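Worked Example 4.2. Consider the chain below.
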Amino acid sequence: MSEIAAGQAVIELLRAEGVEYVFGVTGLTTNNMVTQMYGREDIKFIDTRHEEGAVLMAYGYSKSTGKPSVCMTTSGPGTINLAGGMSLALKGRAPVIAIAGDTATEYIGRDGSQAFDLVNIFKPLTKMAVQANRTDRVPDLIREAFRVAMWGKQGPVLLDIPRDLLDKETLSDQMLSPDQYRTVNPKTPGDVQAVNLAAKLLLTAERPLLLAGGGVVDGEASTEAIHLAELLDMAMVPSYGHHDAIPNSHPNYVGPPGGRGSGEAHEAMDKADLILALGTKINQPSSSWDYSVINEDTKIIQIDIDPIEVGRNYPVAVGIVGDAQRVAQQLIEAVCDISADGKTNKVWKSEFQSIARKRIERLQSERALSADPMMPQQVYPELTRALPKGTMVTIDAGVAPGLAYDRIFFEEPRTMFNYAGQGALGMAFSVGLGTKLGRPDRTAISIHGDGGFLYTCGELNTAVRHNIPSVSIVLNNNCMGAEKSQQKTLHNEKYVGVDLENPRFDKLAEVFGAKGYYVEHPSEISDVVSEAVKNSVPSVIEIPVQEYFPPSAPKPR
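Applying the procedure from the previous section yields the following structure tokens:
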């Protein structure tokens, strides 16, 4: 039987999975793998300036495409640098496979140079973390990594391969196509009795509301979600951070919940007598996990692919485990079997549409704001005017970028990317690069505060070298806004570590070889953003803004 080097086998296995890019930083323990990509057009190594940038780019690629992604790092601290990004992939349900080149097996467990127990470090941050112990196990473990990452609720995997195993040979006839060792994530139906009970409850509800979660995006269930809402005159609210699950222009759409969302969404959720939680664990920002947003008397039908999440945060009237799209289809059929035309809720529809109009009027009133530097709220109407249809928007953590949650409107799935409840300040730049590589036909922008942008802006060099034309908007208020707001409110204005001194970000971009823009008036924003998108080169737009201290999250009652 013919044999090929183990490092080459790794790359051929990745190509069998359709992997286009491997993100990472080259190291001594990975050279046996990365050199196998030399001169190839079918798979490319995207060398980043830090391992965190690599895993965040992989995250953006996976979330924009729904495909698995791969990052590759060297032993010890090189792999440990993935921790923050891997935790984002776990929270954000992204199938990121990290292949770690480790120290040789003879040094593992002996406190050798750069020898750490990577498997146990990453177990809490992944769906699976495993170390290869023999060369002939490497192909099987790579296949297992993809199987685990893509199955059920998707998530990251770490495969640790000691350096000496890659120096040995492996059998070439172990190459298999993916359909020989894993299936596409199945569209698992829900229990029929539970679906029928849910349909009856939906038809008896007077004020039903659809809460559409990340499972709607992952399961490609947006069409079914809209059909259900129209069939039953349901208000529609996305779960926090998944605003692209349903089109925001739909007449049944109220607005996003959460402290950085809208009080109007909270009002509709509070008034609902039944919430259909489709593809969502009912996350903490959406509901506070108490009865300040969701009424204690409200019945909940919860549908999630992960049985652990059903009933975990709120008691349910009906719990259904299954794929969001398939269960939604079952619900539509069950509702129509009972009542072909569904149910009309004219009074409720008039009420929630009135609530939705209040939100739009509130946002429109912000156009009257005037300040120098401008208020961050003044940025978003102009930015929205300039963005092409289907633009992919990555929102960093922070107060100024956080205003985007209530002010940017999403019409298509896989166009909103954020820190997914993980709080990963600085994630937006690299994630935005990954989304652009995943869907190069789409415009990709990222929105940052000044604090977050400086976390990972070294990847500007990566964007320039690999010609990744994303547009980064830096809202510069010269402070760590969320922390300063808290120090103002709770600590008697004792400001420590929150006031920043920054470079000119447009000039910084130019030093890296990117295009820089500096905008001082709202009227300039639309033209500048349009120009940056049209130029199709890595670009940074700095917009000086006022400090803004957000009020406490509004309560519906």
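The first strand starts at residue 3 and ends at 5. DSSP finds 24 helices and 19 strands in the chain. Compare this with Example 4.1 before moving on.
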